[in-house]
Specification:
Helices cover 51% and strands 18% of the residues. The chain is built from ten helices and eight strands. Strands 3, 4, 5 and 6 form a four-stranded antiparallel β-sheet that branches. It starts with 5 loop residues before the first helix and ends with a helix.
Length: 280
């Protein structure tokens, strides 16, 4: 078997991860650096349009464990999303409620034995710290519930109306957008989401662990003297770990694979220069 090409290995790894979803919460410093790079790519004074999807892409994928199917009168079928999971995702991206994000009631009314509440959500932009708002949304819940043929007041109706309104506001940011866009109807997509959240819960794939691995790779690459050393480093777990990292942080994966490519180029250049000297 011929010697493995590190460039080919890197290319195959990046190709395998190119189908993965955008990264989950990256370290703040990395996000700022990425934002600076985006600013450098401005054309005619206009920012890259892809930057406008940053929050949407971080919030759009729903954890299948936080969903359950439901059926309404008339045969309508859909997917219900756990309200607590929504709050958790907003806290993960923006910080604790009341500090990094929150919501306020703008209006309310009662009509046709239903409570309607209008609310809007605010959040602090992770990049600029600017306070932003969603558009207002109405949520409604029946005031009376029927159990065993007996009607009784529903003391949860106001709370559920607020939950309904806030949930609609969060959709505007992209939270659980995959459910609302029908992607959850695809079993293959749900399986991918299960794998994504399983990887996200892995301690070895948290931002701090990835940063530590990147630093370790830098040090070990510095000790590589030839292509055999480079191949050995890749085969002793680096390649596998990079594929796993790519499921949650594609930018980090690309940075680390680039380190391998740069090291290979340095070794080849050094060997070529050495060969030229011998020939001379």
């Amino acid at each position: 078997m011929g010697r493995m090409s590190k460039t080919d290995t890197v290319a195959e790894t990046e190709k395998a991860v190119s189908k993965a979803d955008p990264t989950i919460a990256a370290p703040q410093a990395d996000r700022k650096a990425d934002g600076q790079k985006a600013d450098d790519r401005k054309t005619d004074g206009k920012p890259d349009a892809l930057d406008h999807m940053h929050l949407w892409n971080r919030l759009k994928r729903t954890d299948p464990k936080a969903t359950k199917p439901f059926t309404r009168n008339g045969g309508f079928r859909g997917t219900q999303i756990d309200p607590a999971w929504r709050l958790m995702m907003m806290t993960e991206v923006f910080g604790p409620v009341g500090k990094g994000w929150g919501y306020e009631q703008m209006d309310w009314t009662i009509a046709e034995r239903m409570v309607f509440i209008c609310a809007r959500v605010w959040y602090l932009d992770p990049e600029t710290g600017e306070k932003c708002w969603t558009g207002p949304q109405w949520g409604g819940t029946e005031m009376v519930r029927r159990r065993n043929g007996i009607e009784a007041p529903d003391d949860e109706c106001f709370k559920m109306s607020m939950t309904d309104a806030v949930g609609k506001c969060l959709v505007q940011l992209g939270l659980a957008a995959d459910v609302h866009m029908g992607q959850f109807d695809d079993s293959k997509y749900r399986e991918e989401s299960e794998a994504f959240y399983a990887a996200k819960a892995n301690p070895d794939l948290q931002p701090a662990a990835i940063a530590a691995f990147e630093e370790e790779i830098r040090k070990r690459l510095g000790a590589c003297l030839d292509l055999d050393d480079l191949e050995e480093l890749w085969r002793t777990g680096a390649g596998t770990r990079l594929r796993e990292i790519g499921t949650v942080d594609r930018a980090a994966q690309h940075r680390i694979t680039s380190l391998f490519a740069q090291k290979k180029a340095e070794i080849l250049k050094r060997d070529e220069e050495g060969g030229d000297l011998e020939a001379a």
